[in-house]
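hiii so um. not sure if this is the right channel but i have a protein structure encoded as tokens and i wanna go backwards to a sequence. like what aa goes where. can anyone help
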């Protein structure tokens, strides 16, 4: 039979996770292939890039979408576990599709971050999970839509991973990002952090201007009281600049509060931090490149 698309794989994958123990994703490939009676040739059919098996790639995307809807959660490298909502889903439905996933706010937020509500193309290997591209889009537009969706997926994965690491490791990650952006040397305050200061970084190579950091690996939103504490810590240092970075988000009150301060405090939430990591190649690696070329008319000019 044809290799199933990611829609068909989501429900049986969720069923596999329903055994009380974390599921190693690679251990799901064989039982899922058996469930769909795939031939050896279908199991080992390569993706267009030739770098991985097509079926395994689609299982990975099915797991990714289930995580974004909150039906699965990551619990380690290559490991997923069913969530309470996942158990509810198995009791309530017998099929999972995009319409069902759109019933969850976390999944709708992921779709919004792709920058387009249009259906997704299947023209690229890493976009195997997306629906057919509408005919109104050019091939170049289709690639752009895929690129945005792939990037949004990576942003989600980065935020999820950052929320799992040790707070001290997260503080160092923040410093790594800022240093990669071109700021001078920096260091984490660690357990010796003074009054809400988690790290410092030099704005220039000579260290004439110091930026103080607070890095919070939180899930709940950061509110105004947290920013007030950080502002007080900056005042104690007679600092003029600070950056508050979190894996979650800032409340509206927190955002409005920083605009009224004399001390300049920059707020960076989880999605913004993930985008900076991607743009500056921190915690990510390139898996493929696509060059788009056009005809060089000048080359064919005759003298």
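sure thing!! here u go:
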């Amino acid at each position: 039979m044809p290799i199933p698309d990611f829609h068909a794989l989501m429900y049986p994958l969720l069923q596999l996770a329903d055994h009380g123990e974390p599921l190693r994703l690679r251990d799901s490939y064989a039982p899922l292939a058996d469930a769909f009676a795939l031939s050896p040739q279908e199991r080992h059919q390569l993706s267009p890039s030739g770098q991985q098996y097509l079926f395994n790639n689609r299982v990975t995307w099915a797991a990714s979408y289930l995580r974004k809807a909150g039906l699965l959660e990551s619990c380690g490298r290559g490991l997923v576990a069913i969530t309470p909502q996942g158990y509810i889903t198995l009791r309530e439905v017998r099929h999972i599709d995009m319409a069902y996933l759109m019933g969850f706010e976390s999944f709708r937020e992921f779709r919004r971050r792709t920058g387009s509500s249009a259906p997704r193309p299947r023209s690229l290997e890493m976009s195997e999970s997306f629906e057919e591209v509408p005919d109104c889009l050019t091939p170049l537009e289709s690639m752009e839509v895929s690129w945005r969706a792939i990037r949004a997926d990576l942003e989600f994965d980065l935020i999820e991973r950052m929320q799992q690491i040790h707070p001290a490791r997260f503080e160092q990650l923040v410093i790594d990002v800022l240093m990669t952006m071109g700021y001078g040397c920096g260091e984490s305050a660690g357990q010796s952090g003074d009054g809400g200061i988690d790290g410092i970084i030099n704005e220039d190579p000579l260290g004439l201007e110091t930026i103080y950091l607070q890095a919070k690996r939180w899930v709940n939103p950061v509110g105004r009281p947290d920013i007030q504490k950080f502002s007080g810590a900056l005042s104690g240092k007679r600092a003029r600049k600070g950056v508050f970075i979190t894996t979650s988000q800032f409340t509206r009150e927190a955002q409005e509060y920083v605009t009224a301060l004399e001390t300049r405090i920059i707020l960076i939430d989880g999605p913004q931090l993930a985008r900076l990591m991607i743009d500056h190649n921190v915690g990510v690696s390139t898996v493929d490149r696509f060059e788009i070329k056009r005809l060089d008319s000048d080359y064919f000019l005759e003298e």
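oh and Residues 177 and 282 are 6 Å apart (CA to CA).
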